[in-house]
Amino acid sequence: MKITIDKIKELGPCFATENLKRIAGGRKSMTLMEILDLDIPASHRVWVVSQFLPENSRVKFAESCAERAIRTAYAGASAAWQKWADRWLSGEYRTAARAASNATMAASNATWSAARAVSWAASSANIAASSANAAWTIAWAAEVETQIRELKELARGK
Questions:
Q1: What is the domain partition of the chain in residue ranges?
Q2: How confident is the model over 36-49, as pLDDT tens digits?
Q3: Which of 25, 103, 109, 124 has its CA at a distance of 20 to 30 angstroms from the CA of residue 63?
Q4: What is the mean pLDDT of the chain?
Q5: Hey, CA dihedral for 13, 18, 23, 29, is it positive or negative?
Q6: Do 142 and 113 meet the contact criterion of CB atoms below 8 Å apart?
Q7: Beta carbons of 140 and 42 less than 8 angstroms apart
Q8: Contact 76, 113 (CB under 8 A)
């Protein structure tokens, strides 16, 4: 699949058209793999590529992100939330129809949720505010890099 700057612009990216053209390096279009290898922040690459995945791959990606976020937040969550999480992780609350309807939202929120959960865990352990912020930053970066690896596999058709 070739993605053009015009297709990306239709999504409402935060980059101006001139910046998109500069990033593309004169190319009229790029593949998902080329976008994933661009020298821009990983979260921007995740955002673009996840918008162009086929529906079944987008659902798979969203579920994977959501599962990591749930597992990260589980230990510090309330009993009611853990009950819901147990049902979601078991598949009871994870039907294809439900996943498809929530895929876009889950993909956009899962990274932030996972990183935030790690930060909360650090804060609840009475780590200094600067350490908690550093933990959030590290968790965010690790999660986004995990998402890049997953998206590369999905773009290759695995």
A1: 2-52, 55-155
A2: 999 998 888 898 99
A3: 124
A4: 77
A5: positive
A6: no
A7: no
A8: no
Eight-class DSSP state of 2: E
Please write the tens of the pLDDT for every residue from 94-111.
665 555 545 544 454 555
**What CA–CA distance (Å, rounded) separates 116 from 113?**
5
Collapse the DSSP code of 142 into the 3-class scheme (helix H, G, I; strand E, B; otherwise coil) and give the result: helix
Answer for the pair 155, 32: CB distance below 8 angstroms, yes or no.
yes
Both tokens of residue 107?
């993909």
The residue to which tokens 């699949």 are assigned: 1
Separation of alpha carbons 139 and 157, rounded Å: 27
Other C-beta atoms closer than 10 Å to the C-beta of 63 total 19
Residues 6+ away with beta carbon under 8 Å from 57? 154
Q: For residue 47, what are the contacts with CB-CB under 8 A and spacing of at least 6? A: 13, 108
- Read off the tokens for 47: 């955002």
Q: 123-150: per-residue pLDDT in tens?
A: 444 444 454 555 566 677 778 888 888 8
